[in-house]
Automatic annotation (TrEMBL), chains A, B:
Record InterPro entries: Bact_exopeptidase_dim_dom, Peptidase_M20, Peptidase_M20_dimer, Peptidase_M20A, Succinyl-DAP_deSuclase_DapE
GO molecular function, one term: succinyl-diaminopimelate desuccinylase activity
Peptidase M20 dimerisation domain mapped to chain residues: 181-279
Alphabetically ordered keywords of this record: Hydrolase, Metal-binding
EC number: 3.5.1.18
Superkingdom to which the source organism belongs: Bacteria
Name under which the protein is recorded: Succinyl-diaminopimelate desuccinylase
Lineage summary: Bacteria, Bacillati, Actinomycetota, Actinomycetes, Micrococcales
Organism per entry: Arthrobacter horti
Enzyme class: hydrolase
Length: 369, 369
């Protein structure tokens, strides 16, 4: 098992985490390393569940905050010459400049910050004014049913209680509040099959889908202000499939639509909206996940925003803040690196960005002198 | 090997042919049976090429006509309780009423008529005023490159010379002249992939296809008169496919179009027409087969139409008359059974229809008394 040194520079710790391959479904080695390193620290109550680990201080403060991050990554890049690989590599000297490797932004930089904070608490250098729960979990990059965080909610709900949660997903070091919801619909047209040499005996289901696409092409997505943040929506055909053979008039065409809706709407609101837009067509909802309101008006969130500074932004992609939101725990995203590099072959993070994130969270957690 | 009795009632001979399974690529048993039976007859020069057989009279008449039919069928039905199977079955007594089985209309009824005519010539009951070439060929129901008739054209072009050809494809006993051409095109739209949570960073290739489908839906297919027959055209999207995943803005969408064009047009004319309709879009022609003009003005064709009676009709589907047309041999379809039942699970033919077809051809081939 790789031994992790939690006390080294947090950017070097990020590199050490990248060097443990942890593509979804194969998180055990990294979970073992993280658990072993945490057990070396004083002052934590540690729970392991599958490949998830929860480490909690129990100082008896009246308030508890949660810092959460996932251990898994998307698969390694297959492109020749890509630097988003395992092991990691540096543009210059280790610990300076840019660090490349799978998970650099999504989200081993964030996990390194969590571990460095825990190490500082363990060393007695940081004595937070609130109790802290660190959550490290598996299976974030795959279907929601496999989510390690979802499993923790089912198996150990008490471990996820708190007044406020921070997800260390990459946000370029600014606070991103809440997230859009996401829903999927299938719009299906039906026709009558016939040999294409006698097309007039059939009815073309692909031709029938023309107005569906025309409405989608003409659709102007809204931007919705929620708790002071502007959420930009989007509504798109993501897949289309119709027809059975090159000489048969198609009797069925299916358009899959993905609607990313602002957190002022429930999945049912979103469905109503899509049904109105697709009036006259057969619509089936196949998937939906609620968004999360930013919740920045909550005192714990407000104090966090004040402490780290900068202008909070909305999060467009769905993240696990929505799970905390469903538990009644206000949650924001705050982590090092550019989310647009996530899942990319040239995934990378700046060493200074990781250190800046650690400094901001250290300052916020420290009691006011 | 199954021995075929060519001298029995032609509907019973049809049943015997159905009972020899001959799905494309497995025509050897039926070709062996047909060849052996033909070799029993007097008066024919016989050539075997793969699973195709050519049997020619060589009486030295100034004129030669060709009667052609394919030996293969589409696969057997898999539907429970279907009667379009091997062996065949009768609604009533054998030789009366309706005969069920794969190939009943497409086209073992027609092949039985060819063989019965050859048998009558062999027995000396029929002494045609013109020389006759019977062609039995493999691989008609599959891709054109496998066609046994195409192979005969390459290997034995002299065997396919003649003044007029009749293809015994099912036409309900009326003369169907010529055939529409067929061509296929791919219309492709391109976009820019992006995560669907940040759709504004991408460009949706499925939305971009909306005008393609709108133009197809609004298109009014023409009916074109060629040599006195009306050919009804059709132009349809037959397949559509776009998108890569439920959370990605699609960067590519492909619509496959099938244009069935009247025989007044070449494949290049057809392509020009589709390119004009799809102006502004990327169009690639992926396949094309010329149609065939009906050629009913040719004396041999005219005498045939006069002999069998009825009003000639256009053929909409592409058939091998187009191959004869390319060889400069005017050709028509004339055979027993309803083409709309071809390839169907309930494929069937009326015994009387097979006998009527045989009677019509016997009358036409017989010298005027």
């Amino acid at each position: 098992m790789t031994a992790l040194d939690l006390h080294q520079d947090v950017s070097l710790l990020t590199a050490a985490l990248i060097d443990i391959n942890s593509v979804s479904d194969a998180e055990t080695p990294i979970a073992d390393a993280v658990e072993a390193a945490l057990r070396e620290l004083d002052g934590f109550e540690i729970t392991r569940d599958g490949d998830s680990i929860v480490a909690r201080t129990t100082a008896g403060h009246g308030e508890r905050v949660i810092l959460a991050g996932h251990l898994d990554t998307v698969p390694l890049p297959t492109t020749e010459g890509s630097r988003g690989t395992v092991p990691s590599s540096w543009d210059g000297a280790p610990g300076e400049g840019v660090l490349h490797g799978r998970g650099a932004v999504d989200m081993k930089g964030g996990v390194a910050v969590q571990l460095a904070l825990a190490a500082a608490i363990g060393r007695g250098e940081l004595t937070p004014a609130r109790d802290v729960t660190f959550v490290f979990y598996d299976h974030e990059e795959v279907e929601a049913t496999k989510s390690g965080l979802g499993r923790l909610v089912r198996n150990h709900p008490a471990l996820l209680e708190g007044e406020f949660a921070i997800l260390l997903e990459p946000t370029n070091g600014v606070v991103e509040g809440g997230c859009n919801g996401t829903s999927r619909f299938e719009v299906t047209t039906h026709g009558v099959a016939a040999h294409s040499a006698r097309a007039w005996m059939g009815e073309n289901a692909i031709h029938a889908v023309a107005p569906v696409l025309a409405r989608l092409a003409a659709y102007q997505p809204k931007t919705v202000s929620v708790d002071g943040l502007d959420y930009r929506e989007s509504l798109n055909a993501v897949l289309i499939n119709g027809g059975t053979a090159g000489n048969v008039i198609p009797d069925r065409c299916v358009v899959e639509i993905n609607y990313r809706f602002a957190p002022d709407k429930t999945p049912d609101d979103a469905e109503r909206h899509v049904r109105e837009l697709m009036d006259g067509f057969e619509v089936v909802r196949t998937d939906a996940a609620s968004g999360a309101r930013p919740g920045l008006t909550h005192p714990a969130a407000a104090s966090f925003v004040a402490a780290v500074g900068g202008e909070p932004k909305p999060k467009y992609g769905w993240t696990d803040v929505a799970r905390f939101s469903e538990l009644g725990v206000p949650a924001v995203n705050f982590g090092p690196g550019d989310a647009l590099l996530a899942h990319k072959d040239d995934e990378r993070v700046d060493a200074d960005a990781v250190r800046a994130c650690l400094a901001a969270l250290t300052a916020w957690l420290s009691p006011i002198a």
